[in-house]
């Protein structure tokens, strides 16, 4: 990957959200408001759009597309993020364990931390990626609804 390609990706990563939020904000600012009571503690875009007394179909279409996209992106990226974080934390614990002197740490804790690096990431990956499959997700949800005592 060239430096130019990295620059393009960084620019897209910065300007796409700015453009999307700016467009949604523009659509909201142009609306006349018929009220001023928000049923929230803080002000967000959609409750302000709901205060309008004109047609908000364009706002609804723009807002729905971006929320669906965010949901799909999160569904796609979340297993990768969880796996990466699990591996990173386990690696950090292992490196920290090697930096500490043996006499400073309880031997039981040292064994648990060293085994965590060897056991948790390999067990985590099939669970995280397997739950994305509908067949496995259905079995897990049925098991959780019934409870472990109902299986015996």
TrEMBL record:
Database matches in SUPFAM superfamilies: Family A G protein-coupled receptor-like
Pfam family, one: 7tm_4
Membrane topology value: Multi-pass membrane protein
Annotated keywords: Membrane, Transducer, Transmembrane, Transmembrane helix
Segments traversing the membrane: 6-29
One biological process term in Gene Ontology: G protein-coupled receptor signaling pathway
InterPro entries xref list: GPCR1_Superfamily_Member, Olfact_rcpt
GO cellular component, one term: membrane
Example of a GO MF term: olfactory receptor activity
Record bears the keyword Protein biosynthesis: no
Domain of life: Eukaryota
Subcellular location(s) per record: Membrane
Protein name: Uncharacterized protein
Native species: Pogonophryne albipinna
